[in-house]
Write a structure and sequence with these properties.
- The N terminus is likely disordered.
- The chain has one domain: Hypothetical protein apc22750. Chain B (Translation Initiation Factor IF3, 2-Layer Sandwich), CATH 3.30.110.70.
- The chain is an alpha+beta fold.
- Helix content is 32%, strand content 38%.
Length: 119
Amino acid sequence: MNGNNESTSFDPRMVTTSISLDGFMVTQNLGIVKGIIVRSRSIVGNIGASIQSIFGGNISIYTAMCEKARDDTYNLMCNHAQSLGANAIISVRYDTNEIAPGLSEVLCYGTAVIVQKTA
């Protein structure tokens, strides 16, 4: 795992929301893997979002914050799977909760597996 939480050698093509990967057979289930982040909205972000909301449409400041949180949790999950020796993750899901006003939890989880290419 490197310092910026990016997955360095986990192939993103081997991560799926499905329960299987076409062309591969699960040979070992290594268990649940997860990545979790708790983020807060900044005062500056809230002011910028308030200005954007006056005009309607997409609130890009919050969209960017949500995308970053999802990317971070995905990379943490992949790093967790890699540390277990997995070469794939199946049944991936995201979950979000507001745990306090202005504080959001983002969770990415799935099942770490070892797969082999089928003939």
